[in-house]
Amino acid sequence: MNTATKSESIEWAEHRVEARTGGAWQVPAGCLLRVTDIEGSQTGDVFLVDAADVADGLSNGRSFDYNDSILLSVGSRLYSSRSKVLATIVADDVGRHDFLYTPCSQEMYEIQYGVTAPHPNCYDNLTDALAQFGVPRSTVTVAFNIFMISSVSADGRLTVSPTQSKRGDSIVFRAERDLLAAVSSCSSDTCNGGGSRPLQVSIGTVR
């Protein structure tokens, strides 16, 4: 989807997020945040914070409420815990993402998989990356899990299926206010269908 009008052009700044790592960037209001699955079959966590209030981060509950849906795609707006509009999804090649699961963490690997050795995880990737901007770890709650497929059964059980994302697929968010945006390349084999791969983060300025 072309996110610029005929009289506009977009200048992109490119950043590569290696497998099982993360990064964070400033995204001014009106700019675009694009995350691309470089090789295919890779999910990622996106967490947004109001740059003017680093204690106010992305809220799945507020976003569900105000969009009247738990499945968010083009046209959906992502809200903060203080009900501020953070971003709008303006393009989406995959159309299916999760907003129910918290970022994988060291504790998750220990409790669910019995992994006691230090393991790369999205929670540490997101919080470590945002710390450079003064964002407290407590701000990071539920990330928007791009390309991740989760389902809720009739009895309320949650299941995760391998992503349907293909090489080159992307999702684009438009910042509705000055943001701090963190992205992690997920290291959970369950979400990615085995293995972990890099993601490309592009920040676009409309000229």
Question: How would you sum up this structure, described in words?
Answer:
This protein has one domain (10-206). 14% of the residues lie in helices and 34% in strands. It has four helices and twelve strands. The strands form three sheets. Strands 1-12-3-10-6-5 form a six-stranded antiparallel sheet. It is globular.
Specify the biggest β-sheet: 6 strands, antiparallel
Whole-Å distance between the termini?
A: 17 Å
- Could you list the spans in which at least 5 consecutive residues all have pLDDT below 50? none
Helix fraction, binned, reads: 10-25%
Query: What portion of residues belong to β-strands?
Result: 25-35%
What count of helical segments does DSSP give?
4
**Cα-atom radius of gyration:** 16 Å
Structural domains: how many: 1
- Total number of strands: 12
Mean pLDDT: 95
Which of globular, elongated, flat, extended, rod-shaped describes the shape? globular
Please provide the ordered H/E string of secondary-structure elements. EEEEHEEHHEEEEEHE
- Strands in their spatial order, largest beta sheet: 1-12-3-10-6-5
Helix/strand/pairing class, anyone? alpha+beta
Which labels suit this protein?
207 residues; alpha+beta; 4 helices; 12 strands; 4-stranded antiparallel sheet
Give a brief description.
With 207 residues, the chain is α+β, with helices and mostly antiparallel strands.
